[in-house]
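[job 4471] stage=fold_predict status=RUNNING
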Amino acid sequence: MRVVVCGVSGAGKTVVGKKLAVALDCPFVDADDYHSAANKAKMAGHVPLTDEDRWPWLDALNQVLRERADVVLACSALKQVYRDRLEAGVGDVRWVALVGSREVIQRRVDARVGHFMPADMLASQLATWEPLTSGVSVNVAGTVDETVQKALAGLRH
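[job 4471] inference complete, writing structure tokens
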């Protein structure tokens, strides 16, 4: 099963994605590892990425999905057009959106240490976010384990 865990920075994509991968017995891939040095530097400099910055990154991630029948991918995929690009030409892709209040996610972002995405970039991500048109949305207000269980339950339906 190909699962993409999406949402804004700080929603918990990596930690939830890793636990989902263990539960589903498949590899985990973090989309952040596929950003170019230029993209990371731009974000670290408090400059939001443009669509033009994102296309090569999304194309590389699409290739990952094409090459793996079973994988959990953590990727922001903030807009439907990005999600369409990710799943283009790929078979069954299941979507899990991690959502929550700005306050909950801001606390998480503020608590992170050593991440290239500055905390003040959350506002631009929230402004860009488009809800899923298909898949499961999970509120991240609870514990990580609760979030994972809700995601697994949604994937089973």
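[job 4471] summary: The chain has a mean pLDDT of 90.
[job 4471] exit 0
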